[in-house]
Structure formats: structure tokens, C-alpha cells
Design brief:
55% of the residues lie in helices and 10% in strands. By secondary structure, the chain is an alpha/beta fold. β7 (323-327) and β8 form a beta hairpin. It is globular.
């Protein structure tokens, strides 16, 4: 598979694109446990209802004991399996690791960004039973009540019980839920991966990565030795970064163009842009970002809206390709307006409505 470093920036790491059913299973579990963000999933409420019906109450209750960061961390196990990275390999990979390794992986012990959020040695002290360190992990890493409950389980349950529970969840999800979506999802992912690899063959890795992450731009020096991109259908329109000391892994959304296999249908991106710009608050957000790159807090303060409402609208604008995001690591993210998104929409509209 193509692995490309950015010739224009020798310090930029090589980028490669991977795919397989294991990554889509991880994306489905992460999407289902994405908390308030779940309302902004492009698959919408019909997908949630079908998942619940197929999984059954027992599996759903086991899945909901955990949280988005726990399931997204499984992408590291998926990456370590051999091609074709299928769903059975994911569960087998989980069971093959030492139980304490699984606990540390799910807790994010190997993540430089997680370690930067807490004091030195906090993970080790928390796992050893230090209540002060456990409270520090809950505060620093538990961004939602669900995430805090998951952290409590990770640091209090026996490691072998955690390993068995997560492996069993993956096995049951792969048997009960995933078969309903696998064929369509992998067909779209296949087209998307082929397109991204062609882009890597012909373009600078940093530009390809920015496109793959739908406008996310990495802060200089924030990367590890390698960047891995795993496109998925279930997680769209979101990106889930999982970092280790050596590798930055992005569970990302397949491009809209990968769905466009009907030449008579309007391009998906065009429809999303029209929807995104049809809301007064979203137009105000774009106007506020006309001159400055702002954090979510700064946008909320300027427009006098609450953060939950704002994040919902930012997700829609991001999905439509109208925002760029500067990832500044621990310092957070800054949003800016992508003027090329509006230009692209105009060109796409003229092409679609023109002679054919």
C-alpha cells in the first residue's frame, strides 16, 4: 500500500491508508457510544434504532458500560492484526494480549496527549489504587459522565475481567450487528481507500491528510513517527484520533464522493453544503470566522450560544467541508472558515445543473 512522506516538509511523517472490517467494527462501537455527538451522526436515528434491535438489550447494556475513548482505542489492536484486518481478528487480537496491556491500552496509558493531561505517574498510581490519582484521571480524562464511569471501571475491575468483557462485546457485535452493514460499508470504504491511495501517489502527504481529515490541520511538531488513516462509514462525519508514542492513528470518515455512484443524483457534498448554509446560526458562525480562527468557547461567547448547541452546528459545518480546524494538541482546536468550500459548492452546483 502507498506510504508517502511530504517532500515539501522533511519532518512530516509518512502517511498510509488502511482498511478492513476490524476498523469498521471499532467505528460502529465508537459511534454508538459517542454521547451527545451521536445526534450528529450522518447515519442518524434509523441506524441507532436498527443497532438496538439487532444487538438486543443484553449486548447494548454491556456496550453502554463503556465509552467512546475505550472503543476508539481498539483501533490500535485492529492495526496490529494482519491483512485483511477482519472482525474475528480483532477479538482474537484482544484475547492474545496480556490482560494488563489491554487495560493500559484502553485507558490510554500510551497516549502522549493523555499523559499531558495528568501529572507524571498518575496512571500507575491510579492502577495501584491511589484514590487521589484516580480522581485526577476522572477529572482530566473524563469529559462526560459516561467517560468517567468507564475510567472507574478500567481502574477498579480486574484486568482479565476487562479483557474478557471487551473481547466478548467485539465478538457479539461482529455476529449480531455488523453483518447488517458490512457489505455496503466495505464497498464504500474500498472506493474511498483506492481514491486516497491515488492521492498519496500524486500529492504531498500533508495535503492528502488535510483532505482525508476534512479540514483538520496538525500543529507543527504534533505528530509521531507515522500517521495511519483508517476511513470508516459508521463514524461519519467525525474523526477519532488515537495516538501512541510512535504512531498517530485517525479513524476518519469516508469522503462524500465515495458514495456518489449514481451519476444522475446530486453530489452528496453539494446537498450537505446546501443544508449547512440553510440555517441562520450556522451562517452567523461562518461570518464570525471570517477574520479570525477561534476556539469553540470563543465562538460560543461571541454568538451567545451554549456549547452543546454550538458543537452540533460545528459538526454540520465540518461535515459539509466549510470549516478548517487547527489541532494545537493540548492547547485545543481553533476553527476557521474554508472559503474553498463555498467556491467548490458553487462550481459543483453549476456542473450539476448545467448541460448533461
Amino acid at each position: 500500500m502507498p506510504v508517502r512522506a511530504d517532500d515539501a516538509s522533511p519532518s512530516f511523517p509518512p502517511v498510509r491508508v488502511v482498511s478492513g472490517a476490524a476498523f469498521e467494527v471499532v467505528a460502529e462501537l465508537a459511534a454508538f457510544t459517542s454521547g451527545p455527538a451521536r445526534a450528529s451522526l450522518e447515519s442518524g436515528k434509523p441506524w441507532i434504532r436498527e443497532v438496538r434491535a439487532r444487538a438486543g438489550q443484553d449486548l447494548i447494556s454491556r456496550v453502554e458500560r463503556w465509552a467512546f475513548p475505550v472503543f476508539s482505542a481498539l483501533v490500535q489492536v485492529a492495526l496490529d492484526t494482519s491483512e485483511p484486518h477482519d472482525a474475528t481478528q480483532l477479538a482474537a487480537g484482544l484475547r492474545s494480549l496480556p490482560a494488563e496491556t489491554v487495560r493500559g491500552l484502553l485507558a490510554g496509558v500510551g497516549s502522549p496527549s493523555n499523559r499531558a493531561m495528568v501529572s507524571d505517574g498518575a496512571f500507575d498510581r491510579a492502577l495501584a489504587g491511589d484514590e487521589k490519582a484516580r480522581a485526577e484521571l476522572r477529572t482530566g480524562l473524563g469529559l462526560t459522565p459516561q467517560a468517567r464511569r468507564a475510567i472507574d471501571r478500567l481502574i477498579s475491575l480486574p484486568a482479565d475481567a476487562i479483557q474478557d468483557e471487551l473481547a466478548s462485546i467485539v465478538e457479539d457485535w461482529s455476529n449480531l450487528v455488523f453483518p447488517a452493514f458490512v457489505d455496503e460499508a466495505l464497498a464504500v470504504v474500498g472506493r474511498d481507500v483506492a481514491a486516497k491511495r491515488r492521492q498519496l501517489d500524486g500529492g504531498a502527504a500533508r495535503d492528502v491528510l488535510r483532505t482525508a481529515l476534512n479540514g483538520v490541520d496538525l500543529a507543527e511538531g504534533s505528530w509521531q513517527g507515522e500517521i495511519v488513516v483508517a476511513p470508516t462509514v459508521a463514524l461519519r462525519p467525525f474523526v477519532a484520533p488515537v495516538d501512541t508514542d510512535a504512531t498517530m492513528i485517525y479513524l476518519c470518515s469516508v469522503a462524500d464522493e465515495s458514495f456518489d455512484d449514481d451519476p444522475a443524483a446530486p453530489p452528496r457534498r453539494l446537498v450537505k453544503i446546501a443544508f449547512a448554509m440553510g440555517d441562520p446560526l450556522r451562517l452567523r458562525i461562518l461570518r464570525a470566522l471570517g477574520d479570525d480562527a477561534l476556539t469553540a468557547t470563543e465562538i460560543a461567547d461571541r454568538l451567545a450560544v451554549d456549547r452543546t448547541t454550538l458543537h452540533h452546528h460545528l459538526g454540520i459545518l465540518r461535515s459539509a467541508g466549510l470549516l478548517s480546524i487547527r489541532d494545537e494538541g493540548v492547547a485545543g482546536r481553533r476553527y476557521a472558515r474554508r472559503t474553498d468550500g463555498v467556491t467548490e459548492a458553487t462550481r459543483s452546483l453549476e456542473t450539476y445543473l448545467g448541460p448533461h
